[in-house]
């Protein structure tokens, strides 16, 4: 569940009204796109590996499966056999990246049929339906990219689907809407975060751009609502969420459910000095209390 602050009224977003909304993700017949993506990935794996499996079967059993030429010498035999573990590992990457490439083409076709745009749209409108279709088109390939043992694979996938991701960005496990999201350089997101450029309220969907600047930090268990702008160096504290259209100032820690407090960013030395001051002040108070008790 996601909490926002703005309410749509006569197709305008007005302020100071809290509501609870979902991301609007539900299953329809278009969800079958995942099965199509899976089958396409399997077909590519089979097509690319026909020659290898044919050669491997020949070297092990002395027969061929398909009428392909096979190099019948000892060197080729050992190369094919020794490459078997690498073949399995390579097929995992081939499966994932082929699905990412295929899905990005479908994604671009959907965008050509209904160009994505910001605004407030009615339920079952064309924009509503295509927002939903884009989500399911990107869902499986992004999940596959996150499952790969390569830290930048998910960033590669997001860029394929139109998300603007800067340099040296860390995207940990979480959900990021593929469209209308811009993430600057040297920014880091933590675990279990949600960055929404769309939200549902009753029979309407809000679609607004989210912009996260350079060197920002999105803390764990946080939600960024549509229209949020994080200026350079802003930090969204753990277990916090933003209002719709909220701006987070630079070089401050923003916390709250929803965000309502901002704290200065301190260096380690400043934090240590603050702790020492608190301990000293506390010690002085204890000494004063003790002296007063002794005098009595």
Structural features, described:
The chain is an alpha/beta fold and 296 residues long. It has one domain (2-264): Hexapeptide repeat proteins (UDP N-Acetylglucosamine Acyltransferase, domain 1, 3 Solenoid), CATH 2.160.10. Helices cover 43% and strands 21% of the residues. It contains 6 helices and 21 strands. The chain has helices at 33-61, 74-82, 84-113, 126-147, 153-160, 268-295, and strands at residues 2-4, 7-9, 12-14, 19-21, 119-122, 164-165, 170-171, 174-176, 181-183, 188-189, 193-195, 198-201, 204-207, 210-212, 217-218, 223-224, 229-230, 235-236, 247-248, 252-256, 259-264. A 6-stranded mixed β-sheet has the order 7-10-15-18-20-21, with no helix packed on it. Strands 6-9-14-17-19 form a 5-stranded parallel β-sheet, covered by helices on one side. A hairpin with a 2-residue loop joins strand 2 (7-9) and strand 3. Helix 3 (84-113) runs antiparallel to helix 4 (126-147) and helix 4 runs antiparallel to helix 5 (153-160). The chain is flat, with a radius of gyration of 27 Å. The N and C termini lie far apart (59 Å). Residues 1-21 have low confidence and may be disordered.
Count of folded domains: 1
Fraction in beta strands: 15-25%
Q: Which word captures the global form?
A: flat
Please work out how many helical segments DSSP would assign: 6
Q: CATH topology, what is it called?
A: UDP N-Acetylglucosamine Acyltransferase, domain 1
Round the Cα radius of gyration to an integer and report it: 27 Å
Order of helices and strands: EEEEHHHEHHEEEEEEEEEEEEEEEEH
How much helix, percentage-wise, in residues?
40-55%
CATH first level: Mainly Beta
Mean pLDDT: 82
Intertermini distance: 59 Å
